[in-house]
From TrEMBL:
<dbReference type="InterPro" id="IPR009061">
    <property type="entry name" value="DNA-bd_dom_put_sf"/>
</dbReference>
<protein>
    <recommendedName>
        <fullName>DUF1836 domain-containing protein</fullName>
    </recommendedName>
</protein>
<dbReference type="Pfam" id="PF08876">
    <property type="entry name" value="DUF1836"/>
</dbReference>
<dbReference type="InterPro" id="IPR014975">
    <property type="entry name" value="DUF1836"/>
</dbReference>
Length: 205
């Protein structure tokens, strides 16, 4: 004979108030484990558009979207036309394309597309070593997110300073580094606000 279900317990669990502290602790742990692929970890073979869309969505799955799509084929085409992303070669996208898309798709959560374009122009004008900068940006973003969530709902982490170098290995103007550092911090704060507001909404029912 099977075990009898405790109906009263089921009802109590269903009616139990939302445990914000426990949910936040779980969220904080999850955000401390965020990992975005470094350039050398991206697929070494060129990808078709549908593969790129899936890859970018997976890499940035920790960013709340509020029912929106992070990236679509139309968006990619628009970014190429606007000069935000290099044009694909024979309809295929290299790791360099993916890195650009990850940069654009993450920062557009806290900046306008026009501002992202301006930021890329600043980086390009400074002749920044993009591959090195990508890895440094990804690392700084992970640390910023972990710090943002580490001290409880009232806590905030300190900015993660970056050093950016040009293609000759010379450190670029400090203003560029500060701009990127602040952009990363702003994005981490946006991710924090979106996640915690969602938890607060669940608590309020």
């Amino acid at each position: 004979m099977g075990a009898r279900r405790d109906v009263g317990k089921d009802v109590a669990e269903k009616d139990a108030p939302f445990d914000f502290a426990a949910a936040y602790q779980e969220l904080s742990l999850s955000m401390s484990r965020v990992h975005i692929s470094r350039f050398e970890e991206l697929p070494r073979i060129d990808l078709y558009l549908d593969q790129v869309l899936a890859l970018v969505a997976d890499e940035l799955s920790f960013i709340p979207l509020e029912g929106e799509k992070l990236l679509t084929g139309s968006m990619v085409n628009n970014y190429v036309k606007q000069g935000l992303v290099p044009a694909p070669e024979r309809k295929r996208y290299s790791p360099r394309h993916v890195a650009y898309l990850l940069f654009v798709c993450s920062l557009k959560r806290s900046l306008s597309i026009a501002q992202v374009a301006d930021l890329l122009s600043v980086v390009d004008n400074a002749q920044v070593d993009l591959l090195r900068a990508y890895n440094d940006l990804v690392s700084a973003f992970e640390v910023a997110i972990a710090r943002e969530f580490s001290d409880g709902p009232e806590g905030r982490g300190d900015p993660v300073p970056m050093r950016v170098y040009d293609v000759q290995g010379v450190e670029v103007d400090d203003g560029v580094s500060r701009l990127l550092t602040t952009g990363i911090r702003l994005l981490a704060s946006k991710v924090y606000v979106d996640h915690v507001l969602e938890l607060q909404s669940r608590r309020l029912g």
